[in-house]
UniProtKB/TrEMBL annotation:
GO terms for molecular function: transmembrane transporter activity. One of its GO terms (cellular component) is plasma membrane. The keyword Transmembrane applies. PROSITE patterns: BCCT. This is BCCT family transporter. Keywords: Cell membrane, Membrane, Transmembrane, Transmembrane helix, Transport. Pfam families: BCCT. InterPro entries: BCCT_CS, BCCT_transptr. It comes from Flavobacterium hiemivividum. It is found in: Cell membrane. It is a multi-pass membrane protein.
Length: 673
């Protein structure tokens, strides 16, 4: 394989960053399973359905427990001291604006599902009461409650666990943006071996099958909408081929333009269109009824949150079939999609704090889902009860056309259909676009800037597989197979939680480790000099003088003494961006020890400048000599230290460095970048 790769690169300038141990097994599995589902759709569907039924019936409680752990785990971290940790170095800035970030979270997560189930799920529960025989008003209330439950915090906690784990290890510790990286605290460098390959193969196959089935089933709704507009005469396979090809061509073009240019722009456009559509339904529909049900629905959801979270219907045998076909199926489907969505939101979340990440991922999309599902679902129930005389309930089982039948009861029906189709198309494109990007990342151990032909390859493979299965009727069996694989990946996600917790504990200890009392050798011999410095507000030239005279002399003396002990050290002077000087001790197995001092500007408040009983201040901007370290920690003001005291401070930090390096618990934090 490597010889062939090198030959193609030399002969045809054919470059690839595929990792053989991940890409080849994944492609083999994808092809074999796709052929099984395509050539033997009935047998495959029967087999996978039987396995799914056994798992759902006997292990439904385990799905409930797993998802409950995810919710409690993320909430616990968000409110803990770990919430302030950044996904990256302490000075990392977010790559995307908050609006762009939220738009991409929404579009990649559940965008297409909202269009498909916005009316359908609420009407399905309403038309066929989920738990018991209730009057129509209580049925509407319970239908909204279970829709909120399935599309709320629980779903996003599943995505959040994978996304947070990947983002933390990738950006905080410079590991590959891959699921295998989340096992570093447990496996250390073994994540680069067979176990890591197995995890990535599983994630790649799950991502591919999830996108393929969504693309295939979504085409059914899209073709139904185009037929309702008269754009296509029917929903035959020939027209579905055209739809898939057009969507995938645009997705590939978007993917090759880069994530920031492609998904970012499309996501922003789509969230605006979706919001305008939602607001139109709110205004043109039963507005007061919708707003009232939204308020009551959120309260009903909050008051029933814990009972819904832990409920397995162990004492309600008549409801267990509904429970398996809805709640457990949803949990399995969200888990199956977790590698794709989790890795995508990790990719776009660099620079966010853990608390910001969790609160945004859990609350913003969930609240939008509540609003969306209420506006569409409650409107449908109201129309069904007061206008349509039960006609919408009759369409509840025909999900592909239900949304477009719903629009028939509103003004500007044709325009609504056009906008909806446009939104669905863009959701398809962004899902496929981001999916191609994620599959490239998984198959190349997080490599960036993959050759453009790989985007075309994944897009072409998705197109061929989804169309083949759509033609043969094998999409349903592939979807069922994907649900079956959710349980083992749920166990993998539990292990990700354990590893992330261990890493956060080590991170916190690393950042808060105190100096040993034996190294605290401060003295008060130079108090007059310190007082003089306190009363002097330094300019940049003063700090430059301090760095060149006091700090450099202390570093030079230390270097000489270290060399006597056969420890090589060097002094580096930087003139940009801030004037700074560093003492560096190089290491192979550990990160380099760096003690630096830089001139950092500080703005003086107008109040202090105008204060009479203070020294004269010539400028509102002064400069301080601030220390910093090789692990990206910012230090403190050392302007009051003498040469010997700076040496003492460096030794204190060096002692801390060696103490942490001797503890195997901090291997991840102490390894070179």
């Amino acid at each position: 394989m490597n010889k062939l790769k090198h030959f193609l690169e030399r002969k045809y300038n054919f470059k690839t960053d595929f990792t053989r141990s991940v890409a080849l097994p994944s492609l083999t599995i994808i092809i074999i399973i796709s052929m099984f589902c395509g050539f033997f759709p009935t047998e495959a569907n029967d087999f996978f359905n039987e396995v799914k039924a056994v798992i759902f019936k006997n292990l439904g409680w385990l799905y409930v427990l797993i998802v409950t752990v995810f919710v409690l785990f993320l909430v616990g971290i968000a409110v803990s001291k770990f919430g302030k940790i950044k996904l990256g170095a302490d000075d990392t800035k977010p790559e995307y604006s908050f609006f762009s970030w939220v738009a991409m979270l929404f579009a990649a997560g559940m965008g297409i599902g909202l269009m498909y189930f916005g009316v359908a799920e609420t009407m399905a529960h309403y038309a066929n009461p989920a738990i018991s025989n209730l009057d129509e008003h209580l049925r509407a209330k319970e239908a909204q409650l279970y829709t909120f439950f399935h599309w709320g915090f629980h779903a996003w906690s599943i995505y959040g666990v994978v996304g947070l784990s990947m983002a933390y290890f990738a950006y905080r510790h410079n590991l590959p943006l891959a699921i295998r990286s989340g096992f570093y605290p447990m496996l250390k460098d073994k994540i680069h071996g067979k176990f890591g390959n197995i995890v990535d193969v599983f994630a790649l196959c799950s991502t591919f099958f999830g996108i393929a089935t969504t693309l295939g089933f979504g085409v059914l709704q899209l073709s139904a909408g185009l037929q309702s507009l008269g754009i296509i005469p029917n929903t035959s396979f020939e027209y579905q081929v055209g739809i898939v090809v057009i969507v995938m061509v645009i997705a590939v073009i978007s993917a090759t333009s880069g994530l920031g240019k492609g998904v970012k722009k499309l996501s922003e456009i789509n969230i605006i269109m979706a919001t305008l559509l939602m607001l139109f339904i709110l205004v043109a529909g039963p507005t007061i009824y919708i707003l009232s049900t939204l308020t009551e629905g959120i309260g009903h959801y909050i008051s029933n949150f814990m009972s819904l979270t832990f409920n397995t219907y162990a004492f309600e045998k008549e409801s267990q079939e509904w429970f398996s076909n809805w709640t457990i199926l949803y949990w399995a489907w969200w888990i199956a999609w977790a590698p794709y969505v989790g890795l995508f939101i990790a990719k776009i979340s660099k620079g966010r704090t853990i608390r910001e990440f969790i609160l945004a991922v859990l609350f913003i999309p969930a609240f939008f889902n509540f609003v969306w599902m209420t506006i569409f679902g409650s409107s449908a129930i109201w129309i069904d009860e007061f206008i349509a005389n039960g006609a919408l309930s009759e369409f509840a089982k025909n999900t592909d056309t239900l949304l477009f039948n719903f629009f028939n009861y509103f003004p500007l029906t044709t325009l609504l259909n056009i906008v909806s189709i446009a939104i669905i198309c863009v959701f398809f494109i962004t899902s496929a676009d981001s999916g191609i990007f994620i599959m490239n990342g998984i198959s190349s151990k997080g490599a960036t800037n993959s050759p453009k032909w790989q985007n075309v390859f994944w897009g072409g493979l998705l197109t061929v597989v989804s169309l083949s299965l759509l033609s043969s009727g094998g999409l349903a069996s592939l979807q069922t197979m994907t649900l079956v694989t959710a349980l083992p990946f749920g166990i993998i996600m539990l292990l990700l939680c354990v590893n992330l917790w261990k890493a956060l504990l080590a991170d916190d200890e690393y950042s808060t480790t105190k100096y040993s009392h034996g190294s605290l050798n401060w003295n008060d011999y130079h108090w007059k000099v310190r007082l003089e410095k306190i009363l002097t507000y330094s300019q940049k030239k003063d700090i430059r003088k301090f760095l060149n005279e006091t700090v450099r002399l202390s570093f030079e003396e230390l270097v000489k003494e270290l060399e006597k002990n056969e420890i090589a050290a060097s002094i580096i002077h930087h003139t940009t961006p801030n004037n700074s000087i560093e003492l560096v001790i190089k290491h192979d197995q550990l990160r380099d020890f760096v003690y630096g001092v830089m001139a950092q500007p500080q703005t003086i408040s107008e109040t202090l400048i105008n204060e009479q009983n203070t020294p004269n201040i010539d400028s509102e901007t002064v400069f301080l000599p601030i220390s910093y370290f090789g692990d990206h920690r910012m230090g403190y003001d050392i302007q009051y230290l003498s040469k010997d005291e700076i040496i003492s401070d460096v030794l204190r930090e060096y002692e801390r460095f060696l103490t942490l390096g001797s503890d195997g618990m901090h291997d991840l934090l102490m390894k070179p970048n």
